[in-house]
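Hey,
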Amino acid sequence: MLKKEFPNLKTIALPSYNITYSKKANGFKTKFLKDTPHILKTIKREKKVIESLVETETISGIISDNRFGVRHSKVPSVFITHQLRVLSGNTTWLSTKMHQNIISKFDTCWVPDYKDEKNLSGTLGHVENFDASINYLGPLSRFEKQDLKIKYQLLVILSGPEPQRTFLEEKLMIELKSYQGNICFIKGVVEDQQTKIEDKNMTIYNYMTSTELQTALNESDMVLSRSGYTTIMDLAKLEKKVFFIPTPGQFEQEYLAKKFQDEGIAPTCNQDEFTLEKLSEVKNYNGFKFEECQVNYEKLFRLF
């Protein structure tokens, strides 16, 4: 996706964590524990890649988007995350301590959220008694709000690891058959070529570029999506109304979806419980309305 968005930039592939989710929500933690040795090996491998890059390239700074090993002692290194607290059920204290230990190895941490009480990440991005350099950037989004004519009554945006992405796609394809209105359905599967299928009132894409997705979002009256944090930041920027279906077993998405439901911003339900009728709940919620955050990027990048 990044190569398609920035074709003229040099790209270097880092070792993949190859994270997948359990087929059952209650198996999330067990599967993560099984994957831990592989994750630790990947961190070591990405450290070696970074060491090689620092030796061969002219690098004045590193910004790591939640990549634990992407840092170097000789180069100012920033860790970007909204998770100063990592939810994992009854082991939240342990996962949080481990994550904060990783963050502390970087020169500073940038949190893409508002610093004040009215914010997007809630208790995830706002903690006490954490002795680290923290800078709040405000939400980050590639999109701009545009005053466009509504083309779709519903925009479906799927994302996230398998097999849960496919499970939700299959369920929505059945549930939305009798939806009264135009639907734009983006599967979230990045392939070599973009595909577009017209099926009655539904237009189905395998993926969209940023420009296309920005247009589709601005042309849509309502959004149905996961409650992933990147998606949340985009929807907040565009002040959209949305229905959230969190990824089963992912504590962070479940927490965020409930937070916005409790705040009267957006309704939510579990994946297995979703029905077409539940979309009517959206009209009873306010949608996203947050003030734009002003960031002094010149000051921020003085680190480098």
